[in-house]
């Protein structure tokens, strides 16, 4: 049996995400970093992330593309900009679907309970329209 003191609470993927976040805090990222992160993704995730970037850029041109924990994200302007929305690829943590999520900076409040992330297996025209609407509301 393994020594409990040698066991980690975090998986290898979780540790990698934390290291990416530490780098991002020291050296803010931008669109080139987002595009590089997208390029490294497996084909299915890459197609979704590329399309999401296009949708967010058009729906909320004031949001700045960047990476967040190594994932594609879009934030309020400025060096200390806050992430509004992000894409967590399925491949990131070996999940069966990717998620498009919103941080608490997003203006999505709808009463006392509302969704803040959405599972994506593929983007349809209806899905794209819903994301466009949510992103506009988030920055509105």
Based on CA inertia axes, which overall geometry fits? globular
Q: Which value, in Å, is the CA radius of gyration?
A: 16 Å
Strand order of the largest sheet: 1-2-3-4-5
Helix coverage percent = 40-55%
Biggest β-sheet strands, sense, barrel: 5 strands, antiparallel
Measured by DSSP, the beta-strand proportion falls in 15-25%
In whole angstroms, the N-to-C terminal distance is 54 Å
What class would the helix/strand composition place it in?
Answer: alpha+beta
Order of helices and strands: HHHEEEEEH
Number of strands: 5
Unreliable stretches: none
- Provide mean pLDDT, rounded: 91
Number of helices: 4
Explain what you see.
With 140 residues, the protein is α+β, with helices and mostly antiparallel strands. It is built from 4 helices and 5 strands. The protein has helices spanning 12-26, 31-39, 43-59, 125-139; strands at 64-68, 71-75, 83-88, 98-102, 117-120. The protein has a 5-stranded antiparallel beta sheet with strand order 1-2-3-4-5. α3 crosses α4 (125-139). The longest helix has 17 residues, at 43-59.
List keywords for this structure.
18% strand, five-stranded antiparallel β-sheet, 140 residues, single chain, alpha+beta
